[in-house]
Amino acid sequence: xxxxxxxxxxxxxxxxxxxxxxxxxxxxxxxxxxxxxxxxxxxxxxxxxxxxxxxxxxxxxxxxxxxxxxxxxxxxxxxxxxxxxxxxxxxxxxxxxxxxxxxxxxxxxxxxxxxxxxxxxxxxxxxxxxxxxxxxxxxxxxxxxxxxxxxxxxxxxxxxxxxxxxxxxxxxxxxxxxxxxxxxxxxxxxxxxxxxxxxxxxxxxxxxxxxxxxxxxxxxxxxxxxxxxxxxxxxxxxxxxxxxxxxxxxxxxxxxxxxxxxxxxxxxxxxxxxxxxxxxxxxxxxxxxxxxxxxxxxxxxxxxxxxxxxxxxxxxxxxxxxxxxxxxxxxxxxxxxxxxxxxxxxxxxxxxxxxxxxxxxxxxxxxxxxxxxxxxxxxxxxxxxxxxxxxxxxxxxxxxxxxxxxxxxxxxxxxxxxxxxxxxxxxxxxxxxxxxxxxxxxxxxxxxxxxxxxxxxxxxxxxxxxxxxxxxxxxxxxxxxxxxxxxxxxxxxxxxxxxxxxxxxxxxxxxxxxxxxxxxxxxxxxxxxxxxxxxxxxxxxxxxxxxxxxxxxxxxxxxxxxxxxxxxxxxxxxxxxxxxxxxxxxxxxxxxxxxxxxxxxxxxxxxxxxxxxxxxxxxxxxxxxxxxxxxxxxxxxxxxxxxxxxxxxxxxxxxxxxxxxxxxxxxxxxxxxxxxxxxxxxxxxxxxxxxxxxxxxxxxxxxxxxxxxxxxxxxxxxxxxxxxxxxxxxxxxxxxxxxxxxxxxxxxxxxxxxxxxx
Length: 758
Description:
Blueprint: E1 10-12, E2 24-32, H1 66-87, E3 96-100, H2 104-117, E4 137-139, H3 145-153, H4 155-167, H5 169-177, H6 179-189, H7 195-210, H8 227-239, H9 243-248, H10 250-265, E5 276-281, H11 283-292, E6 306-314, E7 317-326, E8 329-333, E9 343-344, H12 345-351, H13 360-363, E10 396-398, E11 411-419, H14 453-474, E12 483-487, H15 491-504, E13 524-525, H16 528-534, H17 537-540, H18 542-554, H19 556-576, H20 582-597, H21 614-626, H22 630-635, H23 637-653, E14 662-667, H24 669-678, E15 692-700, E16 703-712, E17 715-719, E18 729-730, H25 731-738, H26 747-751
Parallel strand pairs: 2-5, 3-4, 3-5, 11-14, 12-13, 12-14
Antiparallel strand pairs: 1-8, 2-6, 6-7, 7-8, 7-9, 10-17, 11-15, 15-16, 16-17, 16-18
Helix pairs in contact: 1-2, 4-5, 7-8, 10-11, 14-15, 18-19, 20-21, 21-24, 23-24
């Protein structure tokens, strides 16, 4: 194989603004996370590590250090300086998007880059004392898992690499030349080491050096410069050694970039398209991109290094320019066979067409499971014993808002699910409300489907409330292994979850990475597949939709109810512009409420039926229909209850020190309402913005108990679950009560099926 060489790197002043910036149309940035602590995965290949038993408090194993936080933030400041005039001062969710691999340090780095790139500007400042605004970081969809983690998640790729290293003449000779070196390493690390392991050991030593610990004497001649660095850098050459490997590595990123370009070029307007894409990843992602471009020279891309892909329009023609920023130095890349740094888009497509696969799984006859390792996510099965009571009364005990947990010393596990904060109307609603007088609004600066300033304040206040109530149990310091934040994969839910986390865990002195910014990044996990079946099942689970439709057509009670509502549904239909159903009236109610919150004058036809009246009654009954029978519950709300029970079992089956103490879920009102219905404690209402259901697992006299609390519109109350003798419900009793509503089947397969399985 012809050695890959670094072509045409030209150093630039860090804040040099390109002369063609006025023609810039799109930027796409792939960046490595910031400085991190050592990772636990390397323990297996470095058992003699003198720091194997360290905790790396407070960031934890593999966590982002304070230096790494600053470095990621500074990358955002650099991008603001270079592209700020073009991007504008306000963050707009319809033009800029942030994505990340499903790794905490990468999610946090993406949050920090976003914070540096988009500090709140005037109209977006939601807190006068905090120069930060939440910006959603979306995790990559499962179908694009190959983008980020091929080297770790695709066994067939690893088999391809192993075969290559055993058969390629050049690599075999090279390995033979390094025999003595690998034996030297093996003696000192405590296990047999080869090329790939040497790369991981280098990264581990570099992380330990960043933690300012003394490294073993044997490293002095080979690290941080020397043979170990050279071997580590060459590993990225092997990862993209031939066309097949490039197609599965960096070629997939070039494909992703060109897809984004095509979406932009095929769009109707600049404002309606994404023009800024920011991808948080790992050093091997950057190396694979440079290798796919044919410009890689062996090295380890440094923390917060970045490859920047610019699309510009010059004289009505589109051009591509690629830049590489490493260790603070920005370099233009002269792509092979392009006459200048600005490469015509058509030429770029042609040059790299052979490294792009439309479907790598099909091309290499990969089955999806060959290229990923998923946790099954199955909830432990329980014997089904009970039917839900549809007429149970809600018994509540009013509590002081900031009530301190009376038995905090017995609290073992906290789980909280909350609705997002106040939001703007949803763009997709134009399909069922075409006569909306505000259909052409932009809802500047928040945009469609996003959190408003009031929503940000309300979400942050929920975090402050949780801090006040549970602070003594949680402690002051955020620990990534102890506190986990999940979210629906929607802008407003991710933003809300970030704000709850910010209120719950402001940085302590040991966590303070910035002298004046009283905020720290906390990862929010929003896997798109999980979101579909855990939060958005009513819209994204085909079997749920089918069963609901059949139910409404055949259930006597629901048929009679629909007949009684016909006049109201026809009235609403005439005024919204299309024939609407019960479910669609509920959605229209939410949209009207969002417009109402935005201080818009609503149409006259809404008088008398909104915000109170028949529309509200229809909207609140929607939660009952969505949880009307066991089959619907198992496909929907039962998934969240099963998630809670799985978390409890994980806690009970593990050591208390090895499990999360608190798990938080950013969700929607249908999730809150649905849980209340399934628990048998629902009274007709719409759960307000940032309403929350809190589940406390406590241990009293060696027995475990569950308590539910509901916080709605700022008022907290205990819930007495039917079948439980008191608000503190025996865990075993609760287990029996909900067993019938929990499915143990794979949710994706089940949603695509034709019947509800066990």
